[in-house]
Amino acid sequence: MSRASFILLCQLVATASSFNLGAIFKPPAVQIIGSSSNKFANDEAVLLQQISGTGNGKNADIETQARVLNLVRKLETAAQPSQSLLSDPKEAAILDGDWVLQYTAPSEIDAVVDSDDKWTAIAAEDESVKSSKAGLQGAVSGAGIPVDASNNVAKQTFDIASQRVSNEIKSGLGLITVGGPFRQSPNAPLRAIVGFDTAKVGPVDISFLFDIRAKLNGGSYDSGWVETTYVSDSMRIGRGNKGSLFILTRDRDALN
To answer: Could you give the CA distance from residue 7 to residue 109 in angstroms, rounded to a whole number?
Structure first.
């Protein structure tokens, strides 16, 4: 591996804010309860229609982004998840398993959005993960380096039983896989703080990079957070610490 490739690799795993390209999907390990998909199936269908053909958000113009944000906010306000979603195993069952990324774009845009109450991240001063504004769409980021997700099927996996989350993304260096435990934020109950501790590029284990990063951060493995703002048995909407909006579905082919 060249020096330039190694530097890029180190940057990619620095925050591990990426998603997965795996073709095999793990179904929920426990029974799903509390689904709101039947009640809001029509709203979900309209949202999926709006993001269809945008290349995971990469090709969404400002007007499309505004429409998507309005539709998302409608779901977020009409069906806010329970505050015990991450603390009650029975409620958390709805998160368990694989979720396919269908759209990602900034949580905020400069265009006028119809909704009067825009989503705002709760400030949690005791958390080591800082928030920022996104500058990417149709891509995921590792330490500010964009990785195009517009032509790939991306996936994120929650394992509720082990309280871990895993992500993968294909890059010029190969398939990058990261994983780690998550915990509920004490200040934002719907926010999962993730501390990635394992990483591979193809068959090569590079988890030691997280150990180095933790030492530089005072022993903390905290890498990022994702807040679930809407969830049903077919769709999940999340907001991340990098200022991004994520729309994911259970069905890989939900946009087809």
So the answer is: 32
List, for residues 207-246, the tens digit of each pLDDT value.
Answer: 998 899 889 888 888 888 899 999 999 999 999 888 889 9
- Whole-structure pTM value: 0.76
Beta-bridged to residue 90, according to DSSP, are none
Measured distance CA(120)–CA(111) in Å, rounded: 16
Own/partner contacts of 70-74, CB < 8 Å, gap of 24 or more, are 70/113, 70/114, 70/115, 71/43, 71/46, 71/47, 72/47, 72/229, 72/230, 72/237, 72/245, 72/247, 73/113, 73/115, 73/117, 73/118, 73/119, 74/43, 74/115
* Cα–Cα distance, 197 to 62 (Å, whole number): 37
pLDDT at 251: 93
Residue 107 pLDDT level (bands cut at 50, 70, 90): confident
Distance CA 69, CA 251 (A): 21
Maximum alpha-carbon separation in the chain:
53
